[in-house]
Amino acid sequence: MTERETWATRAGFILAAVGSAVGLGNIWQFPFKTAQFGGASFLIVYIVAALGIGLPAILAEFVIGRKANLNTISAFEKLGYKEWRVVGAIGLFTGFWILSYYSVVGGWVLRYIGGSLTGAYFAAPAEYFGQVSAGMEALALHAVFMALVVGIVAAGIEDGIEKATKLMVPSIVVILAALAVFAFTLPGASAGYAYFLSPDFNALSENFAEIVPFAVGQAFFSLSLGMGAMITYASYIDGDQSLFGDGITIVFLNSFVGILAGFVVLPLLFAQGIDPNTSGAGAVFISVAGAFGDIPGGQIIGFVFFAVVLIAALSSAISLLEVVVSWAIDNYDVSRPQMAIGLGGTIFLLGVPSAIDSAWLGWFDTLAYQLLLPLSVLGILVFAAWVYGAPAIDELMKGSGLGEGVGLTWLWLARTLVIVAVVATLALGLQTLFLGESPAIVPPL
Ligand code: PHE
Hints:
By secondary structure, this protein is an all-alpha fold. The protein has one domain (about 10-435): Hydantoin permease (Orthogonal Bundle), CATH 1.10.4160.10. Helix content is about 80%, strand content about 0%. The chain contains 20 helices and no strands. Helix 3 packs across helix 20. The termini are far apart. Phenylalanine binds near residues 20, 21 and 102.
């Protein structure tokens, strides 16, 4: 077997992880929910959740991945806990499952890139969305998106994922910033900033029971936790860089891009007098898309906007295909490109029902978000903090230059608060599953 690959640089790892974290969630969920849940006052709750709960959880995945230098299933065996491979398997399955429909949404984005240039959706955005989000065309574009993902992953860690995300992540930031400046120049945009960020402690306190679990769930999903992605990416780290420092950088950049996206979409909507009172697919593909029809240069602006959405979706999707490819090439003597094609093809097939009928997509999404993700995060945390314990602290502290107290704080946060938060998320998820409420990521279409 050939030698296992590694990232060429520390920045390469960080950017790849940020690429995984920054995805559709940052663009179609974060800005709208922030506005709805109390603006700046919600941001405080979110930041506490991201730092107090998301950060310890992402560090748990990093520790497992770097210590074992193996894929998300074999890692547990290498650390001496063979039975815990089932936790890795749940994560791998979750990633597999999510990618199947995430790629369908990626296909819609491709459609909108073309549709922007021709102005196809300008006149009737809701109808257009209904037409392109299901059926043969959606299926074909799902295939194209998956082919792009396979192409990047097939090229390898350093030559594929690292090179791609080094280009993609800075592009996302620069283009979103440019779009934010453009949105700022539109008459009427300022109401958007007020809607987005003005603190509303009433909205916060009235909906607290709904907001806290949302903030926690969003922190997990947005940091790509529970999908095997962060364990897998950390397994390619070669060296003793501070995992703690990397984790903070990733959490910060991920939230920053969410806020930046808010500075694009909300002013755009307000300048066009469109009610942003929705989130999810409808927010981006109907409301924001609708705004492009009326602004000067809407074809170009729409094209650029959907291009950023595509880059964000792609850089997340590759992290999920890598989870399975990594497992396959660690265990079987088959080349990376062959595995990428074979597994990418299988995931494509799993996504066929979602592409044909968006009710399936909603069902896939609900199951992942309410059950698979929290279950997987829970398993990882119990393992890292309660079962593995002391060696996990050593691994976390390696190369960090920080005192022992930081490691102990991490351990006790992970053992207590973070686990309680995940159990609560799982309980809520099960409740939603069985009481049949609407899905969390993609609202009913
Ligand atoms: N963090 C991603 C997002 O916000 C979640 C994700 C990662 C989804 C990878 C799919 C694939 O969209």
